[in-house]
Design brief:
The protein is α/β, with parallel strands linked by helices. It is built from 13 helices and 14 strands. The strands form 4 sheets. Strands 5-2-1-9-10-13-14 form a 7-stranded parallel beta sheet, with helices on both faces. Strands 7-6-8 form a 3-stranded antiparallel beta sheet. Strands 3-4 form a two-stranded antiparallel sheet. Bound molecules: ligand FO1.
Length: 320
């Protein structure tokens, strides 16, 4: 298998992104994989700063995540949440006892002035994660989901309301003032990046905040680094999460082509290759018309071997 010579950057949000990052981490030598995590899902809750997309990547690569949910820790107990419920506190966002240690520790470090990057790096060291994991920014960016029932912070839409409200748009509070995380900016400026992999994450609430931050997508395009994206929609379905429902409510075709068209419209010339599942092979011509090469492979990741196989296909593409 061909591996790129230089550093590889993955853009990740949610469970699907973490799965591909695990496959990439399995294949790449220590220090070669860099992961930019979406932080627009983050929110303040119970006085804590919850960073789901960072924690999902760290827990997954650290081998401690709950394998069924994809988020949170394996083997959790729920004593504190039950006690919080007794106190009348919010319990809709399920924080296990050991996961709470992460949030309490992070809240303390942030309160002492540590950056989110520094806290994330320390957590990665504690979990013996070999990839370099960064928040997309150390400045706060928060997704607001505009729905028929009003504007909702992302976790209120996703968890409290279980994605039920009809979506008609998104905005990212704080985006204009936020600065790209320093290591990511250095990585781009170094011109050593072998490639960028946009993981099969939700294009609207996971990938858009990262690419739209601080002219990041324009910086990537100008650097001429090869960029590929893996479709998060397979045969008209999202493998996990609300991407398909959002696309339908936004009147976009709920297909891999619909995702490619979203990326082509908002980030023209950025993505060189779009990776789709065999079940979407008939969509190749339509995606090529958007100016992208198309790679057809297995993009559904159930077992570890599937994650490694998709990672290998992506890395091979970056070597072409
Ligand atoms: N997702 C849920 O659907 N229900 C939950 O109660 C929940 C709790 C939770 C706690 C910590 C954490 O890191 C993630 C958690 N998630 C939960 C997942 C999270 O909402 C999503 O994975 C991301 O925000 C989507 O990108």
């Amino acid at each position: 298998m061909n591996l790129p010579a230089g550093p590889v950057l993955a853009l990740s949000g949610g469970v699907g992104g973490a799965k591909l990052c695990l496959g990439l981490d399995d294949l790449l030598p220590a220090g070669q994989l860099h992961i930019a995590c979406n932080t627009a899902d983050d929110f303040g809750h119970l006085g804590l700063t919850i960073c789901p997309d960072i924690d999902t990547v760290l827990y997954t690569l650290g081998g401690v995540s709950n394998p069924h949910q994809g988020w949170g820790l394996d083997g959790e107990s729920w004593q504190v949440l039950a006690a919080l419920e007794q106190l009348g506190a919010d319990s809709w966002f399920r924080l296990g006892d050991r996961d709470l240690a992460t949030h309490l520790w992070r809240a303390g470090e942030l309160a002492r002035g540590a950056s989110l990057s520094a806290v994330t790096a320390e957590l990665g060291r504690r979990l013996e994660v070999q990839a370099a994991v960064y928040p997309m920014s150390d400045d706060p960016v928060r997704t607001v989901v505009h729905t028929a029932e009003g504007d909702l912070p992302f976790q209120h839409y996703f968890v409290r309301e279980q994605c039920r409200p009809r979506v008609h748009g998104f905005s990212f509070a704080g985006l204009d003032a936020a600065v790209l995380q320093a290591n990511l900016a250095d990585l781009c400026a170094s011109r050593t990046l072998a490639g960028v992999i946009i993981c099969p994450s939700n294009p609207f609430v996971s990938i858009d905040p990262i690419l739209q931050l601080d002219s990041f997508w324009q910086t990537l395009r100008e650097s001429q680094v090869p960029v590929l994206a893996v479709a998060p929609i397979v045969a008209g379905q999202a493998l996990k999460g609300p991407a398909a429902k959002m696309m339908a409510e936004l009147n976009l075709p709920v297909t891999a082509t619909g995702v490619a068209a979203h990326y082509a419209e908002h980030y023209p010339g950025l993505i060189g290759t779009f990776v789709v599942d065999h079940s979407d092979a008939t969509l190749v011509p339509a995606i090529q018309k958007l100016g992208m090469e198309v790679e057809v492979t297995v993009t559904i990741m159930r077992e570890r071997a599937d994650k490694q196989a998709l990672a290998a296909a992506c890395l091979e593409l970056l070597c072409r």
